[in-house]
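Hello again, I could really use a second opinion on something today. For a while now I've been wondering how a particular protein folds. Please have a think about how the structure follows from the sequence. Here's the protein in full, and shout if anything looks odd to you:

***
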Amino acid sequence: MSSPTIPTVQVCRTCGGGAPVDVHFCPQCTKILTLGRHGDYFAFLGVPRRLKLDLAELEQRFRALSRQFHPDFFYNATPAERLASLERSSYLNDAYRTLKQPISRIAYLLELEGVWTPADRGEGNASKLVPPALLEEVFALNEELDEVRALRASGAPTEAWRGRLQQAARPIEAKRDAHERQLEDLSARWDALGGSADNDERRSVLNALREQMLERNYINNLLAGIERELSA
């Protein structure tokens, strides 16, 4: 079965003319277009679907569009134009907030490419499974946490267990640092693929990015748990 055709043209509700899907103002009557069908955050901001972005350029595009969409400029406009300015301003803020951070940018790209699910975002039991690459560290950490909790329950002084917790966090922190470097390498690999890469190459890099992101999220949860124990 062939996939449905994605529209590439939107219709201006003011004059009825057609416009490319990611144009913000009607080429015929120059009125702001309702948000309607659009591309994605990258296309909306006019930047390539890459993981290494020029942040200065991204901010410049954001500020330029912010001025064009600002509701103050549409105070005396028609209700449809005022609504369009609010919709585009809100979507622009979401797009900029997502793309300016490397991790949220990766997650968004994976979502666009269909390999990032609600479970990956922590919305299901699957997100609680221990990644195979972390089994050894998680096992050792759980043993240490059990002993620390036993010490606390016995009334042991803080200095008797705080140092052990801090020591237990170090290999997890080392894993986190390694994952950050691996994510940077994979991001560079994705950007190097270009438009000529075949689907297998693209899928291989996307799946590797997904696995690294899942492990990174799990590592951050482990470190957050250690912080909670230290604060107990």
The radius of gyration is 24 Å.
